Amino acid sequence: MRSSGQEVDFQSVARKLGVARSTLYRNLAVRELVEEVRMRRRGGVVPYSRLVEEVADLRRRVEELERRVQEISSKNYSVES
Q: What is the DSSP string of 23-76?
């Protein structure tokens, strides 16, 4: 919805998904995502809890990349020796 320029609010998301708005409000992850998209679109701030989640996810991804680099480096070292 965001990429197509459609308004992102609880009513439009509920209509697109074919669920009641109360379903969206009860689901914390969905509620935070809808609120975040609305805030970003308005130039507002992202909730702190969402930023913490994003940082944790980025850390996990960096650790995974570091592990893969180490693995590839050790394979290359054994091939060169």
A: HHHH-HHHHHHHHHHHHHHTT-PPPHHHHHHHHHHHHHHHHHHHHHHHHHHHHH
